[in-house]
Design brief:
Blueprint lengths: L1 H14 L33 E3 L5 E3 L8 E6 L6 H12 L1 H6 L2 E7 L3 H11 L5 E3 L4 H5 L3 E2 L4 E2 L2 E5 L5 E6 L9 H8 L9
């Protein structure tokens, strides 16, 4: 009888719903479960304001008014996959520039941490900070449980239309430099002199 009682208690405990714990840092203003209405199929880049290296506000939309942008959301400076991806992009920066594209990298890191990472990797492009995840959430790439961005890369055409997207399901799930260059197409022809 005692074994049956223990089995009954264990069965009931297994059926009891777990308490939902909200991320206290998330400021997403969405419904009860933000992961349900996450949308990474945007046609137009949502823009928004991030912090530059000096802590100043930078309007993302102004960065792709006249040129293409490779927008990279990375998890943070502590992430070895992020460091590798940013280093690879930096090594190929001339190839991106030849295709009329600039690299924009965004994380929830503080401006101090982003600047330290930029210096450590000697990057030739800026790392932007979105500590409240306001922009990261607009793009639908926030990891709501960890208060970081999921690994994601977009190509934004001049004016804001999105022509390429890759949202990773795990830290190492990112497009290669070759995949991004192929998505950008051949370099623009140089005018004859």
């Amino acid at each position: 009888m005692r074994r049956h009682a223990l089995f009954l208690v264990a069965s009931l405990a297994a059926c009891t719903p777990q308490q939902r714990v909200e991320n206290p840092h998330a400021k997403h203003g969405r419904g009860a479960d933000p992961s349900v209405d996450r949308d990474v199929t945007l046609d137009v880049a949502p823009g928004g304001v991030v912090l530059g290296r000096d802590g100043s506000n930078v309007d993302l939309g102004s960065l792709w008014v006249n040129e293409r942008a490779v927008v990279v959301f990375y998890m943070g400076g502590w992430c070895p996959h992020c460091q590798k991806q940013l280093g690879d992009l930096n090594n190929a920066q001339k190839q991106f520039t030849d295709r009329g594209a600039r690299i924009i990298a965004i994380s929830a890191d503080s401006t101090t941490d982003a600047a330290a990472m930029r210096d450590k990797l000697t990057l030739g492009f800026d790392l932007y900070s979105d500590p409240d995840l306001a922009v990261i959430a607009k793009w639908g790439v926030e990891d709501f449980g960890s208060h970081i961005a999921r690994p994601a890369t977009f190509i934004v055409e001049p004016g804001g239309s999105i022509s390429f997207r890759k949202v990773g399901s795990k830290p190492e799930d990112r497009p290669t430099v070759d995949q991004l260059l192929a998505a950008l197409g051949e370099p623009a022809a140089k005018p004859a002199q």
